[in-house]
Design a protein that fits this description.
By secondary structure, this protein is an alpha+beta fold. Helix content is 28%, strand content 17%. It contains 16 helices and 17 strands. It has a 7-stranded antiparallel β-sheet.
């Protein structure tokens, strides 16, 4: 008969992997194969990497200048991330958690305390790395060595951080309510029991329980209950997403992907006003599918919505797969945390799809969808030259979860014509151009440049049907063009600091934006001089600053009027010449103090944006 020894059970806190104190009760457990020496309950507080975010109200300022939550999200009904878990135990826990998380999405439950009572694992003391001569229990309690060994074993076999990240990747819709920005947003509990039999001492963990915190804006009466009305909204959005997939069922795989991108861009805009919005709304994909034009998203919503549509799709070629990745996008006016997609096509190669930047930007829409790059690698990121150099750097979480099978990009952009990459792919500028300008002819040297800026909406003509190729361009017009290219959605908070920029002027918003971004600084007397014609040097400086003031490989300018030039515009002119954006005339001059004509500006913009 087994002895009954009185005792108590005290919870061990494993905060950041550290044990506190513990007392283990010894009791008679029916059906146990051996003598029960003791039991314990333990808790682990799991920190999901949120890139420094410490509250639910995360501030976002402007397009692409966002904080990236580094927890790899998407694949609503997929299991791509599951396959990258490193142990059977992790996959068991993933499956059990996912089954209950789906019940929340289906409206069958509201609680986010998940009990996995059908899972248990047993290890011998030797499997825990404990010498046979070393006791597991001492004076009724687990020894510190045994407790530490168990902690290491549990963490190696049940990769809770990776499990949660995998679920976030595979279940973006189902986990729209999860608060990944809060410290301690995930807690993992389990019981451990030491049993001695004739073969030695075994330790079993059981009664696994996960508690996931609900984001403030999705909570009902507590932080572990989901507001059912929000669930219903999400369910309706999911139904709308399925309708999108069904409507495109008869198209080719490539056409489906194109249609999904277009649907997202047509039905949602970038949310530039998230300062006063709690985390849980614009970060999620449900606003893309709620048929409400007033609900918009940030980059996470764009990427997850595209992923979700792909996950609902039965592609004709089973090689096609979509993943969502995150990291940093470098090359805009500020380095920005970002989320985008990687799509594996039928040729088995991977291509970048940045749906966020495809929205309302014709040039990016043709160059950042199914894009490849020969410049880079998964570990150092990839560079794409589209006017400026855009650099996509994977974060540590992506590098930990995926490998080169997902993260390595094809060397060239995807081409549907040959079912694979195409090194010579040219950008599509929205088809044929009906020339609206009677002073622009196909025989003119500037024809293709005017066509380019006209199709993309960067420059317009006059009301009398002229483009005015030989007219000078004002400083206000130059700033407005850059504002049009940036498509920032900037809304001014204050009036201009320049004494000659009137409130409500057609160029006021563009000047405020350019001043705030450091593109223009004005003159010493406090004026901007909006109506003054822009010089070629001023134009080069504005464009260079817009590009992020990149360094260049040359340190001299071999033109008659710049050979000894040391003025403020020197680095900008060096950059422009080095990158083929500006060139000199037949007279050997760069004409830096000359007034830039509209035709020259159009050509320079085309040179810059098509680098």
């Amino acid at each position: 008969m087994k002895k009954r020894i009185p005792g108590i059970i005290l919870m061990i806190i494993l905060c950041l992997g550290q044990f506190s104190s513990a007392i283990f009760a010894v009791e008679d457990i029916a059906g146990t194969d051996g003598d029960v020496l003791g039991e314990m309950e333990a808790e682990q507080i799991i920190e999901i990497d949120a890139d420094g975010a410490d509250s639910n109200e995360v501030l976002f300022d402007e397009h692409l200048n966002n904080i990236l939550y580094g927890d790899r999200q998407v694949r609503a009904f997929g299991a791509a991330a599951r396959e990258y878990l490193n142990s059977d135990a992790s996959r068991d826990v993933y499956d059990a958690l996912k089954a209950q998380i789906l019940q929340i999405a289906d409206g069958q439950r509201v609680g986010t305390e998940f009990v996995l009572d059908n899972i248990s694992y047993t290890w011998s003391a030797e499997e825990l790395g404990l010498p046979s001569s070393e006791p597991v229990i001492s004076a009724g309690s687990f020894t510190s060595a045994a407790a530490d060994a168990l902690d290491r074993k549990v963490k190696s076999e049940i990769e809770t951080n990776n499990i949660i990240n995998a679920l976030l990747h595979d279940c973006p819709y189902e986990m729209y309510w999860y608060d990944k920005t809060s410290k301690g947003g995930t807690r993992f509990y389990y019981s451990a029991r030491a049993v001695k039999n004739s073969r030695g001492t075994n330790i079993t963990i059981r009664n696994l329980r996960y508690v996931l915190k609900v984001a403030d804006s999705y909570q009902a009466e507590s932080s572990t209950t989901v507001d059912q009305s929000r669930t219903n909204t999400a369910k309706a959005a999911a139904a709308n997403a399925r309708n999108v997939v069904n409507a495109n069922a008869g198209k080719s795989d490539y056409e489906k992907l194109q249609s999904y991108k277009q649907f997202i861009c047509d039905n949602v805009s970038y949310n530039n006003y998230t300062k006063n919005v709690r985390y849980g709304d614009p970060w999620q994909l449900i606003y893309v599918f709620d048929n409400d034009p007033d609900t918009n998203v940030v980059c996470e919503g764009y990427a997850k919505a595209f992923q979700y549509l792909c996950d609902l799709t039965r592609f004709k070629n089973n090689k096609i797969a979509c993943y969502t990745v995150g990291g940093t996008m470098v090359g805009t006016l500020a380095d920005s945390g970002h989320m985008w997609n990687i799509v594996t096509m039928e040729d088995g190669q991977n291509y970048l799809a940045d749906i966020t930047n495809c929205d309302d930007n014709p040039l990016y829409a043709s160059r950042l969808f199914l894009a490849g790059s020969r410049n880079g690698s998964p570990n150092i990121g990839y560079s794409l030259k589209i006017g400026r150099s855009l650099n996509y750097l994977y974060d540590e979480n992506c590098l930990n979860l995926w490998d080169s099978r997902v993260l390595k990009l094809a060397a060239q952009d995807y081409s549907p014509d040959n079912g694979g990459s195409n090194e010579d792919k040219e950008p599509d500028y929205s088809g044929a151009w009906a020339n609206p300008f009677y002073d622009v002819s196909a025989k003119n040297w500037f024809y293709s440049a005017v066509r380019f800026v006209s199709i993309n909406g960067y420059m317009n003509g006059y009301s009398d049907g002229r483009f005015g190729p030989n007219d000078n361009l004002s400083r206000a017009m130059m700033v407005q063009i850059l504002y049009n290219i940036n498509n920032s959605g900037y809304e001014p908070m204050d009036s201009a600091d320049f004494s000659d920029v009137a409130e409500g002027a057609w160029y006021e918003k563009a000047v405020l934006w350019a001043s705030e971004q450091g593109i223009v600084t004005g003159f010493a007397d406090g004026t901007f001089r909006p109506q003054e014609s822009v010089t070629r040097a001023q134009m080069a400086v504005m464009l260079w600053r817009y590009a992020g003031s990149p360094k260049t490989s040359i340190n001299t300018l071999l033109f008659d009027d710049t050979y000894n030039y040391t003025g403020y515009a020197l680095p900008a002119l060096q950059w422009a010449v080095d990158n083929g954006i500006m060139s000199g005339g037949a007279n050997g001059s760069l004409d830096i103090n000359g007034r830039a004509t509209r035709a020259q500006i159009a050509q320079i913009l085309k040179n810059y944006l098509e680098r």
